[in-house]
Amino acid sequence: MAGHSQFKNIMHRKGRQDAQKSKLFGKLAREITVAAKLGTPDPNMNPRLRAAVIAARQENMPKDNIERAIKKALGSDGENYDEIRYEGYGPGGVAVIVEALTDNRNRAASDIRSFFTKSGGNLGETGSVSFMFDRTGIIEYDRSVASDDAVLDAAIEAGADDVVSGEGGHEIYASTEGYRDVAKALEAKFGEPRKAALIWKPQNTVAVDDETGEKLLKLMDLLNEHDDVQQVYANFEVSDALMAKMGG
Fold this sequence. Notes:
4-stranded antiparallel β-sheet, alpha+beta, 9 helices, Alpha-Beta Plaits, transcription regulation, Arc Repressor Mutant, subunit A
């Protein structure tokens, strides 16, 4: 799992880099509203909404904001957002997946395409890189919640596919079909996780040199800072020195 921690670090840059809490809260609220609109407004009955609420709590989003975002989904005058997945190649031929929620498809496509082009990459067709990733559920817990063996036993019993325990905590992976049941079983045993969501996990990661890595990290930041972008995934590794230099 050498590339795994790199993958996690790169994915988490967004949270550490985003000084504008209002922008982050806006993205979280958008996901909550869309999740509530697509399913039931009860987080206990709606796995996607549950994941969105957990993510919001992890960022200390006020309870009033969360409830307001859910209520917004019940109104007829709320904005309608399209879910779009963009796929492309960044510098060095690295595969990138961008998940967006937008009320203006043309604007989002134009902006995201320009980010790829300026970085020396290119936006591809849907399906052009997603075959290099697995769509999987992840449930994360802090290191202190239980021992490695206890988490492994509970995850196996719950029907999980894989468990990775390390200094950063416990990560339990489950199939898209079994994810909800695994998450519920683990929550009953260990309490609310720090994260529970469906993600795109790279099947393999590619090590890049620092020059390419810097371009890639700048592309990640550009994408993450865009209002319409919810999540960005990529399959590259960079040196620890570059992560430190770039504030990762």
